[in-house]
Amino acid sequence: MKTLLKHRLVAFLSLVFILSACTGGVEEQESTEFKLNYEKFTLDNGLEVVVHKDNSDPKVAVAVLYHVGSNREKPGKTGFAHFFEHMLFQNSENVGAGNFIKNVNDLGGTFNGGTWTDGTIYYETVPSDALEQMLWMESDRMGFFINTVSDWGLENEKQVVKNEKRQGVDNRPYGHKEYVKLKNLYPEGHPYSWDVIGSLEDLQNATVADVKEFYDKWYGPNNATLVIAGDVDEAEVKTLVEKYFGEFEPRAEVEVIEPQPAVLDQTKLFYHEDKFANLPDLEMTWPTVEQYHPDYWALNMLGQVLTDGKKSALYKVVVEEKKLAPGVFAYNSSAEIAGTFSIGARAFDGVNLNDLRAAIFEGLKRFESEGFSDADLTRIKIGQETGFYNGMSSVFGKASSLANYNTFAGDPGFIVEDLKKSQSVTREEIMKVYNKYIKDKNYLATSFVPVGQKELVLDGSEKASVVEEAIVQGAEDNPYEQGVTFEKTASKIDRSVAPPLKGTLSFDPPKINNSKRDNGMKVFHIYQDELPMVQFSLRIKGGMFLDDPAKIGTAALLDNMLMEGTANKTPLELQEAIGQLGARVSVFASKEYITISGSSLAKNYDQVLDLVEEVLFEPRWDEGEFDRVKKSALNSIQQSAANPNAIASNVFNKVLYGKEHIFAYPTSGTTETVSNITLDDLKDYYNKNFSPSLASFHFVGALDEPTVMNSLKRFDKWEAKDVEFPEYEIKTADEGSRIYFVDYPDAKQSVINIGTISMNGDNEDFAAAEVANYRLGDGSGSILFKQLRLEKGYTYGAYSGFSRNMNGAPFTASSSVRSNVTRESVDLFKEILDNYGKNFSQEDMENTRTTILRSNTQSYETLGSLVGILQNISTYNLPMDYIKKDEERLKSMTSEDAKEIIGEYMNPDKLIYVVVGDGKTQLDLLKNTGLGKPIVVNPKDEKLELKKK
Fold this sequence. Notes:
By secondary structure, the chain is of the alpha+beta class. The chain folds into 4 domains: 39-246, CATH 3.30.830.10; 268-393 and 409-463, CATH 3.30.830.10; 512-715, CATH 3.30.830.10; 738-937, CATH 3.30.830.10. The protein contains 31 helices and 28 strands. The strands form 5 sheets. Strands 1-4-5-9-6-8-7 form a 7-stranded mixed sheet, sandwiched between helices. A hairpin with a 3-residue loop joins β19 (584-589) and β20 (593-601).
């Protein structure tokens, strides 16, 4: 068929922002121009294709967006769009069962898919020599999928989706909130009246015939947008797209769904006693409008001006004055046919949600009377510009954006209009939509409280209907035979063999400049000018490792306090100064370092660094802010105590490191240790441990090395000091492999953590160990993922890997599995881990080598990934060319080398197993796993009380 070229378009984004200077004056800034070139054409069968050329790196992103989401489902068959997204990764006639995932991994690429109310997208990023293979595979899913669907595959994928629902909804605090909100906001049968993941009952009842009907209706070329972005030749892309997609016949025309906004005739109040929640939670929701409605942009801005910043009305009342919650949120969420506006907060322990609602309404009244300033609006708009550039920093970001705008706005270039409309929103328009949709209007409110705390819910609330699935041992076995026979569909081309890779793949790592200031601070610099952006970090070694063991959480509190103003700026003034530059500045404390990070437009770098200088050298040490930060930290610790993954992590670390080691505890500390911390403790930590001799500055962006080096003169006044590092001995609870169990009553899933302390992060074998682990658990092409998810359907995902710490780097394998296969999952993990080293072949080594070498083409894509490379060099004392050196070792590794690494650092005889699950149904089943009788752990006991069952 002949390809029809509709039009060629070059989109220019030229945005001029009027920015407030830090002093409060107004100054006009130079315009920032972003150029996005793309070409759009349409095949005769209706497939719309967008091509964006970006030769900055040898990679390409392919995205296919089908205009079908949960809003196209039928009552009684909910969750189908999301379920179908899973099915498309299983098989197709020519690529073969399981080979889509395997091939992308072998090519050194990444992939995923996503489903929401209005669409389903599939995407891959691979080295550019594999473009034709990706088009071959994507076209096979579009045109040659349905004959491969089997009863076995259908049932297996049902279990995977059920696991996803249990993990994200049933087993998660506040997980049912979206279901309650949608069910009661929209009338029965409305396309948004169920959540995207749908009903497990509907899913269980799905048949192969249902799958075929869905595929035939929605997965035609005339209901899809294909985007190819990256290192490509446009003429070649046209030829390849016509070759692989041109022969598909269009399906029936897809009907347009007209907007169907929700209507509330009265305010509705619902409550749920959540067995997994520790704190009361309130969310209030108002109906609004669909995406791209004339009021859409002002509603988005309204959400930000209500809560963005310390002087926003809701923050001032709820957080600072009433002290009812550590934060408050407000946001507009507009989809294809309807929208909502939500305001809410997760309150402090014991807060009555009636008081929280009253505070929210008080904040809204203040907003009505006081409004917001021009500076507030300017700050938000310049932040949007920075966010836009960050979103465009990867080829995947470009591909997904073009696909979304083409599908839902009818034009990939609508990105220009979208930003223009957002940037032109006025104060009057924001107040207009507030009065039109929020003020004195009916709303729906959900009160989620811990079990037994019903007295905290909003007065007059009705008990919400929540569907929780019973876990029955052995109830989900797959009764069908694996595999399916089918007659291959005829094609105009030979699709039986994967196309060869094109050309020679080569790439050059970025040039790294490094130096050292006189006070000992190391400097690392990479010039990258694809976007007019910079990203940098100042990392100081120490972190939690330097905490007083009786006051763990000091470094974590300090990272918050450093952002709570400076000697010359109140917390509000500091926040405003950063925001007016469209910048992001943050401080983060980890186990072994504290990092101050920043990003901004290149033209604003010096002003942002001025603010970082203030943050570093002139902390404000405000007692009132410290009290708020500390209370918020305790609130977060209380929340994590109800999270099964956090529980598993905390117990796992205590068993691995030994309860006397500081890493046995979370970086945030415990209720006991944080309660002991004073503001003087933070000052003492800062004065003793902040030294340039422990610091490294990492810069990536559109400024050359001399400019950056000149900017760092401001840090030369920082005087070095001697910092004393403690010594901790790692004392794993058991020398041999053992199993520990934590009871999490009524858990719908069990969390499994397995591991051992392997080495220190600067060990020269670290990279080789990551190579040895790759086939086991590094991603969706691994043995763990394949066997636990794809073959058994026990879990949504299973992985393994090494975490890089200077002081005891653990090797871990982990998963969350459905509760009724806990024992089977532990047995399967043990079988795989026991035999992995024995079975590692030279073929495995060759495949691993090829995949990792190819995947390194994506190591230099974003500013963030480049900063990460510099941070690895400075934090773990790695050579400047460590990536190349790691590659050289990889090229020479044999299977015997890998077996030796596996035996030393992943020894199955030294692996500790920790399981968090429902004790009454699962504990007894774990008695005969070959790991000894389970040792029951009380996670609330800080001394790690162990008792053998």
